[in-house]
Amino acid sequence: MPVYEGDPDVDIAAWSSLANGNSSNVSFLHFGAHTGTHVDAPAHFIQDAPKIDGLALDSLIGRARVVRVPDDVNEISPDFLAGCDLDRVERVLFHTRNSSFWNEDFRKDFTHLLPEAAEMLVESGVKLVGTDYLSIEKFHSGHHRTHLALLSRNVIIVEGLNLSDVPPGDYELICLPLRIAGGAGDGAPARVVLRTL
Length: 197
Description:
- The protein is α/β, with parallel strands linked by helices.
- The protein has helices at 57-60, 78-82, 115-123, 145-151; strands at 11-16, 26-30, 38-40, 61-68, 75-76, 91-95, 112-113, 128-131, 156-159, 169-177, 187-196.
- Strands 3-9-8-6-4-10-11 form a 7-stranded mixed β-barrel.
- Helix 3 (115-123) runs parallel beside helix 4.
- The longest helix is centred in the middle third of the chain and has 9 residues, at 115-123.
- The protein is globular and about 60 Å long.
- The two termini are 30 Å apart.
């Protein structure tokens, strides 16, 4: 599994082991909060903003639309969004070419959401945006404007989705991040599933 450049590597080790004569198997997990499928809370980029343990479940669970972005589109722009039917959509998940990258080393050329498109989603009333790679924003954008456009309006970001086998359309989204009360509250790994309606 790729890890975003500069984030902690994943290390899973045996803390105790039946094979070593311990009374149980206990694994030790070491990885960053933004590893694999994860949720970004507003506190990820905004001081004193809501943390991961305070996010409302009604934003994380409910009807969602999967939008298929053509493989030749590297930036999700306002023009692209204008061609999508997102009227009254509260949760949108972008299925891009990124879903084919999960068995490779980290890629810097992943498809991303432009800040102007993020603003457009906020104005349309979206309360959750998901993407199929480790960041919704261009690699090393230098400004974090896409994240800030969404998180400053309490729009939750879900990153690291694998939508490889998911056709476009409407689903029920169930997104449950670990409710981590300590630390900066910036984000947490999540189990995310889609159910057909």
